[in-house]
Amino acid sequence: MKQEKRIAGLYFRPILKNIAYRGHLAQQKFSAVSYKNHKIIEKDPSEWVIIYDNHEPIVSQELWDKVQARIKSKAHGKSDKRGLTHPLSGFLYCADCGCKTKMCHADTGKNHSVLFNFNCGDHMRFGRTKCFSHYIPARLLEEVIIDDIRTMAQRIVLDEDAIKKEFIRHNAELADNTVKSAKRELKTKQKRSDELSRLIQATYEDKVNGKMPEDICFGLIEKYSTEQKTLAVVIEELENKIKDTETSQQSADDFIRDIKKYLNAPTLTREMCYELLDRVVVGGLPKITGKERTIDIVYKVDISSVLRYKFNK
255, 70 in Cβ contact below 8 A? Predict the structure, then answer.
């Protein structure tokens, strides 16, 4: 079974990423190593020649975006012995160590029914040396999350325009603060990188002019070069962060449309979690922490502040 799933994954993953299904034609995706070495290598997608809207698309942009979002999602989840994946599998995190939770089950002995629960993954694998118990029944989590989704959907239905305006204002403010902070850090890193280039040049000139021993010169150059390479990685990450923040504005309309569908949802589903949730952070048991348990539900779009639920169970 595992071998069949692995093979299926190898065949279907390229299909799910093939832009031909969106009506685009990608060319020059492969090349040879050289005119002597004819080994075929796949180019980076940034080097492809793409003709957009070349033919009639097979899938809609909305469906394509959902598939790509699911591929990128960290919440892939795991199946139980029956091949079933719990709706929250992969979405839950421990509030104290940050580890993903592990799903467990217990046979009740009545009508062969099974009760599922979650606990800190590090605690389950390594015991108290890593983290303490965060045991919580799956049923309780499902009730909390579906109730919160229904409550948010009800609020949106009652006052959709006001919530949409608040989201747009909050999102613009958050993006502005993120970009400003990243730009300040980027400027500092670039300044240091330029300074290192000057130091490397000055060190080499001192060695050529006989002002510095060769071993000291090479040692300093190696030190400066290592720091500069590390900075180059950080600078690239900051530039990408700024670009993503400035160009990718999540639509309030899309989120509102998605959450309104679940106004009267009877149960929590996997699709619902993928569409709405970013993660759920589970606090420790009251008898261990000495304080009320908290469950933080973090949505993909921050229309309202993160709601905090408290339990004394």
Answer: no
Residues 6+ apart with CB under 8 A from 175: 245, 246, 249
Token pair in block for residue 163:
């919530």
Q: How far apart, in whole angstroms, are the C-alpha atoms of residue 215 and residue 228?
A: 20
**pTM score, two decimals?**
0.61
Question: 277-288 pLDDT, tens per residue?
Answer: 888 999 988 888
- Residue 40 falls in which region: left (phi positive, over 0), alpha (psi -120 to 50) or beta: beta
The rounded distance, in Å, linking the Cα atoms of 36 and 64 is 40
Residue 253 to residue 167: CA distance in whole angstroms: 10
Could you tell me which residue, 306 or 98, shows the higher pLDDT?
Answer: 98
122-174 residue pLDDT tens = 999 998 888 999 999 999 999 999 998 888 888 888 877 777 777 667 666 76
Per-residue tokens: 221: 């150059």
CA distances from 107 to 78, 111, 115, 237, 264 (A): 19, 10, 6, 48, 31
CA pseudo-torsion sign 66, 71, 77, 80:
positive
> In the prediction, which pLDDT does 309 show?
36
